[in-house]
Design a protein that fits this description.
By secondary structure, the protein is mostly helical. The chain has one domain. Helix content is 79%, strand content 12%. The protein is built from two helices and two strands, in the order H-E-E-H. The protein has a two-stranded antiparallel ribbon with strand order 1-2. Strand 1 and strand 2 form a beta hairpin. Helix 1 runs antiparallel to helix 2. The longest helix has 70 residues. The chain is rod-shaped and about 115 Å long. The model has no long low-confidence stretch (mean pLDDT 87).
Length: 113
């Protein structure tokens, strides 16, 4: 429903613009000249070309952002794996430390049974 209202609004604006801008003009495109083009077509054409260019620029920006995000996700994953390995190593060292404490206590206590 929102799309239909939006299209009707845009169509009304374009009809209003076309009603008052029918003056024929000449358009110079480098070496090419197009004569007797209504001003309305030039206005709408410029608008559409601007929209297409901005869409393409945004598309390229989104593509580059997706590559950056993908590399950051890989960095995060490798960092998380490294953290997991280090946590395992710390746990192993703590267990080894506790074993050494208990064996030293038995050996160093001369009054033990």
């Amino acid at each position: 429903m929102f799309n239909l209202i939006f299209l009707l609004l845009i169509g009304s604006v374009l009809a209003y613009i076309s009603k008052f801008n029918l003056t024929p003009i000449s358009v110079n495109l480098g070496f090419y000249t197009i004569s007797n083009v209504p001003l309305f077509y030039v206005v709408v054409g410029s608008l559409l070309i601007g929209l297409v260019i901005s869409f393409l620029m945004q598309l390229f920006r989104n593509i580059s952002n997706s590559f950056v995000l993908r590399s950051k996700k890989k960095e995060i994953k490798t960092s998380q794996e490294e953290i997991l390995e280090l946590t395992k190593r710390v746990h192993q060292l703590e267990l080894e430390n506790e074993k050494l404490k208990h064996t030293d206590a038995e050996i160093s206590d001369p009054n033990a049974l």
